[in-house]
């Protein structure tokens, strides 16, 4: 080893080297430690904090966006409900159909627009013609045909049953629109479209935002590709969320501009922290390290631990006793968490409580009683014809009525009251046999006072109780089955039992299996001849629907037809039966040239606004002469809507289709019906023949009915003929035709043709 190497080796321990000066060694060591320390303190830690700030900021943006969307969706639901109230109103239905001209003045006044918080309203007739287009201009209602037509053009071609709502852009102006099909009070018929819209000006939008002080909101047109990314600017964040349109892709977006308070506070804190680090490091690195450890690093560590704990316990908060900017940041974050938790509590309360009555909502009952094993009874109470009451006395009376009903039910430790639907209340008891459901309903039906007098209601209830612990959800389902049974049977109160459950399950099975029965070739038609009493020749056949299920066997029409009517499948079944009967009888006319077919019509079908048009279109599509067809309707069907049914029947008769009044005499039939209805044939109920041969009032009615029908040039058909003596009696009375087992049982058409030959 040479001398130079030795010198370099001992430079540290030279008398003038660093090893001889403790201060110099400290300075060198501090310098060595300072570089990575400063790198950590000035770069790494601020970067981690800034990333955390950005994460909090993104969560803040998402929460504010959710709040703003909920505020706008709340207004959208309010306009939709306002539209629903007008659309399910017979007065609106009549106005759309060209009747009730006074409706425009009565229903579209300034108070309607102001009370409903809408700016535009429109109604179209069933054929699509615009019959009303108005808007509110200051304190006057003026025409607005151009704007309303533009709004209507945004609707989908086929309006869903529950209507549509959404935001659209018309001529640079944003609108919040709700539209629904117009029906009568009972929900029947389709009478055009009811539309209400609110202009979403910047002022209106600001009024809808509950937290407008925390951000600014505006509506913007969306580009073709949509939108939704966040744009971070130095002092604000801009986010755009698309709003659902009436149809097609979204046209508008809700743009929120949110000040970057957390970001700016964090940046300010970081710069101050850097300045402190630099100043303290220049004065005394060791003191600064102690300060950093005690006043910064420990606080940040505690904040991290607190943040992790907040994820597990939302009630926990950051330690905010620190008086530095970190304490300000902690208090800011704590305030933000308190605000969000309060907002969540408000939303939870609105979800679990009914705003009108203060009673629990369905969700609130489920949450309250989910693990409550003391529940023993559930009474569901429904107010029938609530829409009709609203039309008669106004929505304010209906609201007061529901509040009064809930108040009469009361609430204490022994039972809980809830509002489970718009017209339904629930009384949940915690002790078996605690209440008498009949007495409860009787108490609720006590008259309600009005200025004009008193209103008496007839309520319908469903009750279920158990002596043993039963989950609340199961007990509520049982009470719902009992309520539906009471509604179906027109009873005052339904009490759940196992037989009811089996009937409900069987009905549900039928409803499920009935879907696609025609495609699976499980449905078939049989025919029963109608015979001329003078010549004995068959003049027509009545088509009767049959269902042969592969596992359930032969399901009687009296069982599956009501199921089809309740589930809405009767429309498809009715169309299938009509088409099948026309095809088969048209094919049989090669062997039986004068064959005619009678097809029964369900009440649900006959109350369709376009029933007559559908029948005539079917005849045209199948190229069947309209005189081949006779439609059979019942008195009860006609009385549900005499005007609509008579309009259908007149249109069918004008086209050559014959109309028969079926089961005449089975209910409270009046002979005056024969003079008022557009009929060709009267089919006498079989109950006439059971008593017609006796000298009874019903026998006299049979004779008078046949005589009156002859005077009115109506043909008469006696149903249920089972023996020769009945035929002789009918001939003596002048009846024209007969139908029954004595002539022929219902058979397939091929078998009947063979018998006829």
Distinctive features:
elongated, Alpha-Beta Plaits, 757 residues, six-stranded antiparallel beta sheet, alpha/beta, TIM Barrel, Beta-Lactamase, 20% strand
Helix content: 40-55%
Which regions have little confidence, pLDDT < 50, spanning 5+ residues? Answer: none
- Proportion of residues in β-strands: 15-25%
Report the total helices.
27
Report the span from N to C terminus.
Answer: 136 Å
Give me the CATH fold name of the domain at 517-756. Answer: TIM Barrel
In CATH's first tier, which class of the domain at 517-756 applies? Alpha Beta
CATH-scheme architecture of the domain at 517-756: Alpha-Beta Barrel
Beta-strand segment tally = 27
Largest sheet: 8 strands, mixed, barrel
- For the CA atoms, what is the radius of gyration? 39 Å
Mean pLDDT level: 81
Strand order of the largest sheet: 19-20-22-23-24-25-26-27
| Envelope shape | elongated
Keywords: Membrane, Transmembrane, Transmembrane helix
GO biological process, one term: signal transduction
Domain HAMP: 294-345
GO molecular function: cyclic-guanylate-specific phosphodiesterase activity
